[in-house]
């Protein structure tokens, strides 16, 4: 049976490095896995009124329901994110918040997760990844251990054809995906 991996890209820009990285690493999953980007650009800003049973005049947006069901039907989720102002991009935090409700049916609960962060600077999205890990820690999401993936100076990673060029970076990312797959398989 095919395992489904939802890939969340923490950048809305079509040509973002996060999207380029995601498109590359989706090819590193083994046979029997289908990794697909789940778009978060059209998710309305999270508002608890939608999930509050006391509020009857604000129905849950269809986009929330679709997103939550997609995540719940996944065998794992891979986050690929840049760093914005030393934290996770607002669009990604919004998606995390939407998946965290309703309290009785949290989409993230116990779902295997992987995180790849990057930045155009040398830190590789360290703050972004640590903030995302903190936000996800509440949901008991199993994740691969060390080494974590912080890709610094991300514009330099791509060759003329748009592929990740340095062989050691490709090897490192393939190893991370292999370790993530082991977490998914153990679930």
Automatic annotation (TrEMBL):
Organism: Cutibacterium equinum
UniProt name for this protein: NAD(P)H-dependent oxidoreductase
Protein origin, superkingdom: Bacteria
Lineage: Bacteria, Bacillati, Actinomycetota, Actinomycetes, Propionibacteriales
Any single Pfam family the record assigns to this protein: FMN_red
NADPH-dependent FMN reductase-like domain segment(s): 5-154
């Amino acid at each position: 049976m095919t395992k489904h991996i939802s890939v969340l890209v923490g950048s809305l820009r079509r040509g973002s490095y996060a999207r380029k990285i995601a498109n590359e690493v989706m090819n590193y999953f083994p046979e029997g896995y289908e990794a697909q980007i789940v778009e978060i650009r059209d998710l309305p800003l999270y508002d608890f009124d939608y999930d509050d049973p006391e509020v009857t005049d604000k129905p849950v947006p269809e986009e929330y329901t679709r997103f939550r069901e997609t995540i719940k039907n996944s065998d794992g989720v891979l986050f690929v994110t840049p760093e914005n102002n030393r934290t996770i991009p607002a669009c990604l935090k919004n998606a995390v918040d939407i998946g965290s409700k309703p309290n009785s049916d949290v989409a993230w609960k116990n779902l295997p997760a992987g995180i790849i962060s990057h930045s155009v600077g040398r830190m590789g999205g360290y703050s972004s990844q640590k903030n995302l890990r903190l936000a996800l820690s509440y949901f008991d999401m199993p994740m691969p251990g060390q080494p974590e993936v912080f890709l610094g100076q991300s514009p330099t990673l791509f060759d003329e054809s748009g592929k990740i060029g340095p062989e050691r970076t490709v090897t490192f990312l393939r190893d991370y995906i292999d370790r993530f797959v082991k977490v998914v398989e153990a679930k």
